[in-house]
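Support case: fe (ii) ion complex. Customer-provided input:
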Amino acid sequence: MALRDLYPIPDIDPVWSVPQDFQSVFDWRFDDGRKSMMHLYQKGKDMQWDAVSRIDWTEALDPDNPMQMPDEMSGLYHTPVWKKASDRDKAEMRRHFQAWTISQFLQGEQAAMICAAKIVQQVPDLDSKFYASTQVMDEARHVEAYKKLLEKFGLAYPMTKPLQTLVDQALRDSRWDMTYLAMQVVIEGLALAAFGNIRELSKNRLTQQVNAFVMQDESRHVAFGRLALKDYYPQLTEKERDEREEFLVEACYHMRDRFEQRETYALLGLDVDECVRLQNESGYMQVFRTMLFQRIVPIVRDIGLWSDKIKKAYADMGVLGFADVDYDELSADDEKRAQALDAEAKAARAAYVKSVADLGAAGVAAE
Ligand SMILES: [Fe+2]
Ligand SMILES: [Fe+2]
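Agent response - structure generated as follows:
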């Protein structure tokens, strides 16, 4: 099935081309690589998984609430728009809002695949090229998994303009580290928090699994960005670091303030500006937007872009407190959550097989 057929918006361009201007660099030293980077690469190889065999896709989703999310998690929940809506309209809103969210994940995954491929070409060190190659494959598998999930929704959305703007910057910039900064730090850092929100709040097994399994890989990708940039940034001049910080501050505000579900409101026949205003004022959205930075802030501190300018911006956004979050602990927890879902699925399969066998045995006894 082509997702393009599920876009409710007509005349979406079938392809998007971003001009590139950078050098493809070969590393002819072939040295042993940094221990920590090679360790991450080994992990990247060991932990490849296949959405076809790891996930049971037979389950249908409830069209009225595909991800089984609590209504309180909608930015419009406490507003007159929601209160006045009929049950039918509420079901439509849930389906569209959730499909929009998963679609942005899907679109971001393809962007990550292309950014990782750019890093393979451009980064000067072979160990980073090795790791980035595993990330390209990871991202392809993520696109596949989210596409399968969206097919179950029967609805998909194109990439929003604000995300497109940031991806465009990540790809056009001729400096290799800027791709990492936009993708592995900002976009993947935000995505991890958004995936985690669904993994924890969704009551639907399929959406829990897809998000938990993707997160298992994503926390490695963010760790990759941290490792590569932590080594590189101390080598830059103060002016060069300032440029990175300026970009980072802008990118963070951009993603926090402009990432809105405008397309869904328009399609549902709602007043777009009014909905955006109500949503931005909602208590849930304010907490959600703060939580989005839980993974980014400790990484930014770790890679050494930690001037007063950055701290002031994060204080203004109310997220400076995340600087002390233990990223490795969160990562270890991502791992555990994915394993627990694997164990649950295995137990459910075993119980199903046993129930079928018991039924068969009862049938034989009755004969
Ligand atoms: Fe991904
Ligand atoms: Fe990723």
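Residues 109, 112, 138-139, 142, 214, 218 surround fe (ii) ion (ligand 1) (CB under 6 Å).

Case will auto-close in a few days if no follow-up is received.
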